[in-house]
Amino acid sequence: MFIEERRKKILEMLDNKEKISNEEIMSLLNVSKSTVRRDLIDLESKKLGVFS
After folding, report:
1. What angle do helix axes 33-45 and 22-29 make, rounded to 10 degrees?
2. 50 domain residue, yes or no
3. Is residue 51 part of a domain?
4. What pTM did the predictor assign?
5. Number of domains comprising the chain
């Protein structure tokens, strides 16, 4: 899965659910924790979400 496609999927998940855990994203997208963290940092820097 390409980076932008994966990040779009994360945003779609957040549209469907107010909160989602890193572990849930890891499981659904079959990616590592560091990949999820990089994606969330990038999305937040683009003001597409607030992650903690």
Report:
1. 110
2. no
3. no
4. 0.83
5. 1
